[in-house]
Specification:
Blueprint: H1 6-16, H2 20-31, H3 35-51, H4 57-82, H5 107-126, H6 132-153, H7 159-179
Length: 196
């Protein structure tokens, strides 16, 4: 899965650029991409949406939860099927322990991007005529990108693992919200001519 030498080059470059303060920050940030942390956020936001009085709250909660389940299942199946080894060309940063699970795709990247995109879509669903969901999109996507970057910095994933994880996250979130949408609402409700 080596892609034009970029996998090696990026990891070598990041290893040379490491500093103690940056490593400390990356170690903290990467834990925010653990599936357990994302499950907790998904559950709390899902509960909030279900208990809200918004007519689309339950639908948005279903999309959010389904996106997480899609991501977790697809990531795990892909890891087992592809069974790519973790990088062994650079030292792991700091005192971080290299995971024993297969490398492709990055679970941190896929789960964090799934959460980011699913939250954007959930906000869009419950506030279709507002702009604040669009404003929240930038920090949420930056969160997903940052989590993936920590995996490269720490030396526990190949760049193509992370790119695949980001793509998988977008697909899982988009698919979940497509499935939990309301196609019936797209049908025109304009009354027709009266029946004879």
């Amino acid at each position: 899965m080596e892609w034009l030498g970029l996998d090696h080059g990026i990891l070598y470059g990041l290893e040379r650029a490491r500093t103690e303060p940056a490593t400390s920050m990356m170690l903290i940030l990467t834990y925010l991409g653990n599936w357990q942390a994302i499950l907790a956020v998904t559950g709390l936001v899902g509960l909030f949406l279900i208990r809200s009085k918004n007519p689309q709250g339950i639908s948005a909660a279903k999309g959010l939860i389904l996106a997480f389940l899609f991501c977790l299942g697809t990531t795990e199946l892909s890891k087992r099927a592809i069974a790519r080894e973790r990088p062994d060309i650079v030292e792991v940063a700091g005192n971080y322990q290299k995971p024993e699970s297969p490398s492709f795709p990055s679970g941190h990247a896929s789960c964090s991007m799934t959460l980011a995109v699913a939250l954007i879509l959930a906000m869009r669903r419950i506030t279709p005529h507002s702009w604040w969901w669009a404003a929240a999109s930038i920090p949420l996507v930056c969160y997903g990108i940052a989590i993936g970057f920590t995996r490269l910095y720490l030396g526990v994933h190949w760049p193509t693992d992370v790119i695949a994880g980001w793509a998988l996250g977008i697909v899982c979130a988009g698919g979940a919200f497509l499935i939990t949408g309301h196609p019936a609402k797209l049908v025109s409700t304009t009354p027709g001519p009266p029946a004879p």
